[in-house]
Write a structure and sequence with these properties.
Elements lengths: L1 H25 L1 E7 L20 H10 L1 E6 L5 H14 L5 E4 L1 H9 L14 H6 L2 H5 L10 E4 L10 E5 H4 L11 H14 L12 H6 L6 E3 L5 E3 L4 H15 L12 H9 L5 E4 L3 H4 L4 H4 L5 E3 L11 E4 L4 E6 L7 H10 L3 H9 L7 E2 L5 E2 L2 H6 L12 H10 L3 H12 L3 E4 L2 H4 L4 H10 L1 H14 L7 H10 L2 H15 L1
Parallel strand pairs: 1-2, 1-3, 10-14
Antiparallel strand pairs: 3-11, 4-11, 5-8, 5-9, 6-7, 12-13
Length: about 500
């Protein structure tokens, strides 16, 4: 009986191998894909998962009928950009390559990417899933050189928010939550008095302050309708004056220049941080250790900081495209690449990306709703490394399942309670312009402005010398760079 069982098992294994081999032969391709790097890739080996062949990638192969070889990007963004440029220049290119916005603008204008508008009619699933705004943002003179996914956090704008230890904030006895710069200043002074061992503001991210003073965007229009650089304006002087006051009076961490992620985490986990400027994800995954290390701790976003009661804070528009799937010129399997991208936008593929494999990672209730625990979602969390078409809907699924919605909507609510507007940073949104890029790099004015900003904040340079700072920018070529900026803007406006 035992021999019969072993024989049957062997036959079954051989049959399975033959079926797998047959299925592999029936797949078309392979297409070559240079994709993203995600830190969860590093957890796969410990879970016994192979990056190239696992239940997620194999399900996509079988369902699409297309085989693929996928290569993750390098961990270092700078090194990956250099590698992508070398690959495109070599002519030995993959069929699909993920690019950043800056890379896309540069490579498209250099003629290295395939124009894809003519393929959109053959992509019904993709066209139904991704809004036109995501494609319009990438059009250069009406032409489209990539298949984009929409930005997951479509409601969120750039600028961060002031998050506080709300359990301690409630002990301050303030009649109303602060909003203006002066009200925040008074709150931080009270924190210093009541909690002398804490840093009232412990961060090196000043985006909320920059937004309040109108200098978060690199560009702004002057009274004549000409674009100028915000780091060469009177608004910038006001911003620096306020930040220096916080620094000089001990209301912010004097070590902010030496901050890294570990330093910031230590400040919160040790109970030394009262507040900071953080995006919605940080209280969920970066400084969330405070909940365990400091019993009774609460985190909450206060209303968006504004310069005064009348002036709206200028949040920055988020680029509507999150993932840019380009097909390099010289790709051998363009039609298969287009078909595969369209498959990744099907409801079937999105279910795999959102939840995993039915019966393994989740089950369906009788009414068709998904039943998945947080542990089950986290166990297959590495599937995010294969998400081709990001959407707000997929983001919301992860947001609620992981219990991160309190932070995301907490930041949105804080903005709703404030006087805000949204502006566009044209150095981010405009197609690449080689003359601007080359001149900007040659002059190095933004780097110099950042260096001087820190000197002004910590008092190494007196704010009485701000006019001298502007004169130094002029001597270094500010007028020339501003002219090229406006030439660039007028070219595409």
């Amino acid at each position: 009986m035992k021999k019969l069982f072993v024989l049957l098992l062997a036959v079954a294994m051989i049959a399975g191998c033959c079926t797998a081999a047959l299925a592999e032969e029936e797949l078309r391709g392979p297409i070559e894909i240079r994709f993203i790097y995600h830190s969860l890739i590093d957890t796969m080996e410990s879970k016994g998962e192979d990056y190239q062949h696992n239940r997620i990638t194999d399900a996509h192969r079988q369902n699409s009928g297309i085989d693929f070889v996928i290569t993750p990007a390098l961990v270092s963004g700078e090194e990956e950009t250099a590698r992508r440029a070398m690959i495109l220049a070599s002519g030995d290119v993959p069929d699909i390559m993920v690019l950043s916005v800056e890379e896309y603008m540069q490579f498209a204008t250099q003629g290295l990417l395939t124009e894809v508008s003519g393929y959109l009619d053959s992509m019904p699933n993709y066209m139904a899933l991704v809004p036109e705004a995501a494609r319009d943002a990438l059009r250069i003179d009406g032409e489209l050189f990539a298949i984009p996914g929409s930005h997951e956090e479509v409601e969120m704008k750039g600028g961060g928010g002031i998050i506080v230890r709300y359990d301690l904030y409630k002990e301050l006895g303030l009649e109303k939550e602060p909003q203006t710069a002066d009200e925040y200043y008074e709150m931080w002074k009270l924190v210093k008095e009541k909690y002398p061992d804490m840093y009232p503001f412990a961060d090196n991210n000043f985006d909320a302050f920059k937004a309040a003073f109108g200098v978060l965007s690199n560009t702004a229009f002057d009274e004549e309708g000409k674009l100028v650089f915000t780091w060469a304006t009177e608004d910038f002087r006001e911003y620096l004056t306020y930040m220096h006051k916080l620094y000089a009076e001990g209301l912010m961490d004097p070590e902010y220049l030496n901050y890294n992620t570990a330093t910031m985490q230590e400040r919160w986990v040790s109970g030394a941080a009262f507040s900071g400027c953080r995006g919605w994800a940080d209280p969920c995954v970066t400084i969330n250790g405070v909940f365990d290390s400091v019993p009774g701790s609460e985190l909450k976003y206060l209303p968006q900081l504004t310069k005064d009661a009348e002036t709206p804070t200028e949040l920055t528009e988020i680029f509507p495209t999150q993932r840019i799937l380009a097909i390099p010129v010289g790709a051998e399997n363009i039609d298969l690449a287009i078909e595969f991208i369209d498959y990744m936008a099907t409801p079937e593929a999105k279910m795999i990306q959102d939840y995993g494999i039915e019966g393994i990672d989740y089950t369906l209730n009788e009414d068709g709703t998904v039943n998945q625990t947080l542990d089950e979602q986290n166990e297959v969390g590495w599937k995010i490394a294969y998400e081709f078409i990001p959407t707000p809907e997929s983001f919301q699924i992860r947001l609620y399942l992981k219990g991160f919605d309190w932070a995301f909507y907490g930041l949105l609510d804080a903005r709703e309670a404030s006087n805000t507007t949204v502006v566009v940073d044209y150095t981010t949104f405009l197609p690449a312009y080689d003359e601007y890029l080359e001149l900007s790099q040659t002059l190095g004015l933004k780097a110099y402005a950042d260096e001087m900003a820190d000197k002004f904040i910590i008092g190494e340079r007196s704010l009485d010398e701000f006019d001298d700072y502007i004169a130094e920018l002029e001597q270094r070529g500010l007028a020339e760079l501003t002219d090229v900026l406006n030439e660039w803007y007028n070219m595409y406006n």
